[in-house]
Design a protein that fits this description.
By secondary structure, the chain is α/β, with parallel strands linked by helices. Helix content is 43%, strand content 21%. It contains nine helices and nine strands. A hairpin with a 2-residue loop joins strand 2 (12-19) and strand 3.
């Protein structure tokens, strides 16, 4: 039986299909102006026998296609546990929000915290700052590794004011690598603060597209005092978890 999971995020739609317990197909497309049609096209291509939707746009496809849904919290937890059975804490940095989730020994969600009121500390914020500094987002994390001497600080935690502060630093002739490193430190500190409110228990899994960023991973690991486990495809982990929820609904 082919089981599908679809994660409708603010920046990307991720869709996976499992054939038994094996990953059969993976799709990732940028979220456009008509995500419902995009989802229907993806599902029409893969034609899974069962499907569960998650993500901020899950209700759109539920109402427009009669698809069962699960929250991103439960889907992220299920996906993380599938890769790392010893996982107790999940840090998920997505396009529009950041989530920290604590699960028990059985994998059930115990508590979580979410930052969804401000773009700072999210993937979208990193994209905005990379563009302002002239970096490709794929190389933004690596750019920090080229900054060995110059240290600056980004004081504002608001995305709007942080961008203004970045522009000021650029006008002062501060190297863009130094500004990039300061932005990563600021985000890592913000996410670590969120995590400490939840309580950090080993093992800690880092998910979402930002988990591909080596500098952010290293800085967050340092602030949490924990090694962060990252799956080979961290950005599809929540979609994977949704597919697993189709096979066995979460408690």
């Amino acid at each position: 039986m082919r089981i599908g999971g679809i994660d409708i995020g603010s920046r990307y739609i991720k869709h996976v299909v499992l054939d038994g317990s094996q990953l059969a197909e993976t799709y990732k497309v940028e979220t456009g102006y008509d995500p419902l049609t995009q989802c229907k096209d993806l599902i029409g291509t893969t034609r899974p026998d069962m499907l569960v939707a998650t993500g901020y746009g899950r209700h759109l496809i539920a109402n427009g296609g009669g698809i069962p849904t699960v929250t991103e919290i439960k889907a992220a937890a299920r996906g993380a546990r599938a890769f790392f059975p010893t996982c107790r804490t999940i840090v998920d940095i997505g396009g529009q929000d950041t989530k920290v989730i604590q699960v028990n020994d059985e994998g059930s969600v115990m508590t979580f915290e979410m930052n969804d009121r401000c773009a700072a500390g999210t993937g979208k914020f990193l994209e905005m700052m990379a563009r302002a500094l002239g970096f490709e987002i794929e190389n933004f994390g690596a750019s920090c590794e080229n900054n060995k001497h110059e240290q600056v600080t980004i004081n504002n935690l608001c995305a709007v004011f942080a961008e203004s502060e970045v522009i000021t630093l650029i006008s002062k002739g501060i190297r863009r690598e130094a500004i990039a490193a300061a932005l990563h430190r600021s985000i890592a500190s913000r996410v670590a603060s969120l995590a400490k409110r939840v309580g950090v228990r080993q093992d800690v899994v880092f998910t979402g597209g930002c988990a591909r960023n080596p500098s952010l991973k290293a800085m967050l690991s340092e602030r949490l005092g924990q090694n962060l486990l990252v799956a080979p495809n961290p950005d599809i982990l929540t979609a994977w978890g949704a597919a697993l929820c189709a096979k066995q609904p979460p408690i």
